[in-house]
């Protein structure tokens, strides 16, 4: 039986036994204590939603990978740590649920309380850091909406699995990322298992990494891997019911309107150091 894709859903104990190349997943999942219960899991067309005793988390749906999903909704018999362990699954539907579970912990009010979090409203990370990346070499993993505009201010390379005109295929990351000043990458790279290598390439080249999108896990341990900013989303407790209703109604894209808030957490001291370097 394949140790990474057996007949059962992998648990935290399974992930603990994986090799050192899985360290990021091990640290993220291991940061969730035992005994935190799952209240509800929903897998929609575009989103996964996890409600737990610690808080609520979402993640953008990624399909494909190995096999199908062996999850049964509502998964209320699982501990959050075991559901989060699915972030290491090669079934990307299961991994999507696992990342949503990570967000239900790290995006919970108790975990966020000690962090310097900014709510960005309608501002994207690309707009927020426009002045910082101006004139620099910048790679973006994933063709984000209107990303072409960023090419007006910097030397922009877009890496994309299904390249659009002007993009290059994402395997080119092996040749490009180490030559960049900044790398913007989506949180989906944690789901599809490309993030550890992207971070490794960035560290080798001294490239600073900004993670972007609703799947980004706001876990400070990410800063130990070269990430300087986590620009993701959180579900505030008072908005969780609205987002759940939007999911139940089959909403594809308007959960931001239902209460999913864009947020940003920077590595302590990073912005000040970056501004000094820019001078």
Q: What is the overall shape? A: globular
β-sheet strand percentage = 15-25%
Helix tally equals 12
CATH architecture of the largest domain: 3-Layer(aba) Sandwich
Radius of gyration: 18 Å
Q: Tally the structural domains.
A: 2
Name the average pLDDT: 87
N- and C-termini, Cα separation: 56 Å
Helix content: 25-40%
Main β sheet profile: 9 strands, mixed
Low-confidence regions: 275-279
CATH topology of the largest domain: Rossmann fold
Give the SSE string. HHEEEHHHEHHEEEHEHHEEEHEH
Would you state the CATH class of the largest domain? Alpha Beta
Number of strands: 12
Folded structure, characterized:
There is one protein chain. The chain starts with 11 loop residues before the first helix and ends with a helix. Residues 275-279 have low confidence and may be disordered. It has twelve helices and twelve strands. Helices cover 29% and strands 21% of the residues. It folds into two domains: 12-112, Enolase-like, domain 1, CATH 3.30.390.100; 117-278, Rossmann fold (3-Layer(aba) Sandwich), CATH 3.40.50.
Give a short synopsis of this structure.
The protein has helices at 12-16, 23-30, 80-84, 92-106, 109-112, 125-128, 130-133, 173-176, 188-191, 195-205, 240-248, 270-278; strands spanning 38-43, 47-52, 56-60, 117-119, 137-141, 155-160, 168-169, 182-186, 208-212, 227-231, 233-235, 260-266. The protein has 279 residues and is an alpha/beta fold.
